[in-house]
Specification:
By secondary structure, the chain is an alpha+beta fold. It is 54% helix and 17% strand. It contains 13 helices and 16 strands. The strands form four sheets. The protein has a five-stranded antiparallel β-sheet. Helix 8 crosses helix 9. It starts with 8 loop residues before the first helix and ends with a helix. The N terminus and C terminus are likely disordered.
Length: 589
């Protein structure tokens, strides 16, 4: 790579200066911007929530007024009496009709006086479509009221009584483009269910304009339960829009009517001024950054000069100049580094001498290792000569014992190598042959292996400690006919091996303790002499096949003990572990 484009230490120092100033400045700016923006949003969210809560209470009170007014016309006895007489009136033809008309209008004044809500217009329509309107309730003319009634009367369900019916909004050109929201209540005679009249209540848009006009920022809108806009800003959707996910949106449901009140503050009103201030600050930072960039070039060059001298000296040392030494001037870190390099060169010279001595010692150790390998081969060759002489003298018994001993010695010499289950059982037979001679026991040793398990790979002499336990503990007392049987079978993803004897067995409590220890071997140290064989087998099982391999003991019907080994199959752990074991074995030798 050309020296011009190399990422040298000098350039790293220069870039480090820039990053140490630029990155914190930018990071602090962005963090400050983000924190400020979030704080402002949280405050606006809380403020909007309070506004929505107050307005929802105001609207709820207005709905309570509507409910009270409608209940008054339903429950008051005098009102029902007047409505029975008014139900079929077509026009005012007599003084009695006029009195009845005036009495019903007075009922409107009573409800308005109790609710103190003069923005609401109420009127009754009887069976003959005769309309009686309240004194209060805006500036609508009788013609406008009748026109509105013609537009909403089809929305009234005459069979739906005892509840308010929300009829929706009405907007006509004759009313100057003003919108009114209508609510109705069907009035029937409780004695015979006859329709007496329908009470209509008109909520003018001016009521909502006055309510929403108290808020100077953001957008307010009110929707009915079916998603139709009642009043407020048309740009605010009923459901939160994916197009404006950053807008601050507060909404609540008016319980008694199912209306949804929404207060939305556009993101521009929240972050506009903050963003402008942030961008102006970034523009002011740029000139200072350029000035610092020029200063950093000068400072980085001065800092890099002693490092350049060290670099040239190291290159000379690498080219073979072992006598190179660095000037130890000054008290800064570069001077300390020069002193350290000089000390390192002296240590390297000493290390070369030490390495030569170690190589000589290594050759001596290798010769000793070769000599130690000669002795077991000498024993095997001697035993083989003795066996041949015994055969010549027709001593087959001792010749066979020596042959079994030689097979075991060869196995011990190859302890860290792998074997197969079939070969392992042959070694067990040789071991049993030797132990019969040592213990003066006539043993019936039997092997029953499934064909597909014979070639299964396993560590050398894995099962020998279990057969040894049978001789040492199981046949300590004389048995009628000592017997050991080795069986194997293949399950779905595991191989089962059992070694069964007809010896003395184990007490139930002791058997439970041993099985608990085999399931959790870490609960005791592996130093107990009586468990050395079990510890050895369990450790080699786990090291070779993983922690899924297990061992347990059980008493059998012959009175002896059966050792059950469960080995998972279909995994690569044995091959990997075998390499580790071999490496450890070679290191030990």
């Amino acid at each position: 790579m050309s020296p011009i484009f190399r990422f040298t230490f000098y350039r790293r120092i220069q870039i480090s200066f820039l990053l140490l100033i630029l990155l914190p400045t930018v990071a602090v700016s962005f963090i400050s911007y983000s924190v400020t923006q979030n704080n402002v949003k949280e405050k606006i969210q809380l403020s909007n929530e309070s506004v929505v809560s107050v307005m929802s209470k105001d609207i709820t009170k207005m709905i309570d007024d509507l409910t009270y007014s409608s209940n008054f016309f339903v429950q008051d006895v005098n009102v029902r009496k007047a409505l029975r007489s008014f139900a079929d009136t077509k026009r005012i033809e007599s003084y009695g009709d006029l009195s009845l008309y005036q009495q019903i209008r007075d009922f409107f004044s009573v409800t308005v006086a109790k609710t103190m809500n003069t923005d609401i217009l109420m009127f009754l329509v009887n069976n003959q479509d005769f309309i009686i309107q309240s004194f209060e309730g805006g500036d609508q003319t009788p013609e406008q009221i009748r026109m509105h009634w013609e537009m909403v009367k089809e929305r009234v369900n005459p069979d739906k009584i005892n509840v308010l019916q929300w009829l929706g909004s009405v907007n006509t050109l004759t009313s100057g483009g003003k919108t009114n929201y209508y609510v109705s209540r069907v009035l029937r005679d409780p004695t015979d269910g006859r329709l007496l009249a329908v009470l209509y209540i008109s909520i003018p848009n001016t009521y909502f304009d006055a309510l929403f006009g108290q808020v100077q920022t953001g957008k307010l809108v009110l929707y009915d339960s079916e998603g139709n806009r009642i009043a407020g800003d048309r740009s605010v959707a009923y459901d939160a829009s994916n197009d404006a996910p950053r807008n601050i949106r507060n909404e609540t449901i008016i319980e008694k009517s199912g209306w949804k009140l929404i207060y939305e503050t556009p993101k521009e009103e929240v972050t506009g001024e903050i963003s402008r201030t942030f961008y102006i600050s970034l523009l002011l930072v740029v000139p200072f950054f350029l000035l610092f960039f020029l200063i950093s070039i000068v400072i980085a060059r001065r800092l890099h000069r002693p490092i350049r001298r060290l670099e040239l000296g190291v290159k000379q040392f690498g080219n073979g100049d072992r006598n190179i030494r660095f000037r130890e001037e000054g008290t800064d870190e570069i001077a300390d580094l020069g002193k350290t390099l000089n000390t390192m060169l002296d240590q390297i010279n000493r290390l070369i001498t030490d390495i030569e001595q170690e190589q000589e010692q290594k050759r001596v150790l290798e010769l000793q290792a070769l000599y130690s390998q000669i002795r077991p081969h000498f024993l095997l060759n001697t035993l083989n000569s003795i066996k041949c002489n015994l055969i010549l003298y027709d001593d087959e018994f001792h010749s066979q014992k020596i042959d079994s001993l030689m097979s075991l010695l060869r196995a011990y010499m190859k302890f860290n190598e792998s074997s197969t289950l079939k070969n392992e059982c042959k070694l067990l037979a040789h071991y049993a042959d030797i132990m019969q001679m040592r213990s003066d026991i006539r043993l019936d040793f039997h092997v029953s292996l499934e064909k597909e398990t014979e070639s299964f790979d396993m560590p050398m002499l894995l099962l020998q400690p279990l057969v040894e336990n049978a001789f040492v503990h199981g046949f300590a007392e004389e048995a009628d006919q000592p017997r050991i049987e080795v069986r194997s079978e293949m399950k779905e993803r595991e191989m089962l091996i059992s070694i069964e004897d007809n010896g003395a067995g184990i007490e139930d409590q002791r058997l439970a303790e041993l099985n608990e220890w085999l399931r959790n071997p870490e609960m005791e140290a592996y130093s107990s002499y009586k468990r050395v064989g079990l510890v050895n087998v369990l450790q080699r099982l786990h090291m070779t096949y993983g922690l899924l391999a297990s061992m347990r003991l059980s008493n059998n019907e012959q009175g002896g003990v059966t050792v059950h080994l469960t080995i998972p199959t279909g995994m690569d752990s044995m091959t990997k572990q075998r390499g580790i074991t071999d490496a450890e074995g070679h290191a030990g030798r």
